[in-house]
Specification:
The protein is an alpha/beta fold. About 45% of the residues lie in helices and about 20% in strands.
Length: about 190
């Protein structure tokens, strides 16, 4: 494997998706991992771009074969990161996984030996009140969904010590510059090994 496996996670609404999109757009040496799901494609989504859309039976077969770095079930649908896809991409580029904290820690615990060039980055809000304001401002969730997301935040933030890097997203451009510096540094270190 030639590339570094970067895992970027953090609480919902912290801006990690925006930061990852900026990284992928600006750096041709980076690739975004594509997850698998059993949910139906939404309008405009393409198989292999947003997700690999699988039947429940196909997902369960691949899960039994050990082809997921991490997986979870949300609202009756399975989601997982395909190990075979990530390993194939790492032959050419460094790969970013944008996954939740539980998934990130599972990958770290279970696959650190398979991916010796692994860096975990947690993106955090400047404060809980700032995160609450961001989630409210998105207007994409019901109050109950927002409350549910905020309930997870304390657990997620309590896991910062498990990460190699923590980036505070108080200002998007500053957070992006810091994240880009971390990625550049890790890639340079891996090239020297």
């Amino acid at each position: 494997m030639a590339g570094v496996l970067f895992i970027i996670s953090g609480p919902s609404g912290v801006g990690k998706g925006t930061l990852v999109k900026m990284l992928i757009k600006d750096d041709p040496a980076l690739a975004l991992s594509v997850s698998c799901t059993t949910r139906a494609p939404r309008a405009g989504e393409q198989d292999g771009r947003e997700y690999f859309f699988l039947t429940k039976e196909e997902f369960e077969r691949r899960l039994a074969e050990g082809d997921f770095l991490e997986s979870d079930e949300h609202f009756g649908n399975y989601y997982g990161t395909p190990k075979s896809f990530v390993k194939e991409r790492l032959k050419e580029k460094s790969v970013i996984l944008e996954i939740d904290v539980v998934g990130a820690l599972n990958v770290k615990r279970n696959y650190a030996n398979e991916f010796p060039r692994l860096a975990l980055v947690m993106v955090v809000p400047p404060s809980l009140s700032a995160l609450e304001a961001r989630l409210s401002g998105r207007k994409s969730e019901t109050p109950r969904e927002r409350e549910s997301r905020l309930e997870r935040v304390n657990y997620e933030l309590s896991q910062q010590s498990e990460y190699d890097y923590v980036v505070v997203n108080d200002n998007l451009n500053d957070a992006y510059a810091e994240l880009k510096k971390i990625i550049s540094q890790e890639i340079k270190q891996s090239e020297r090994r």
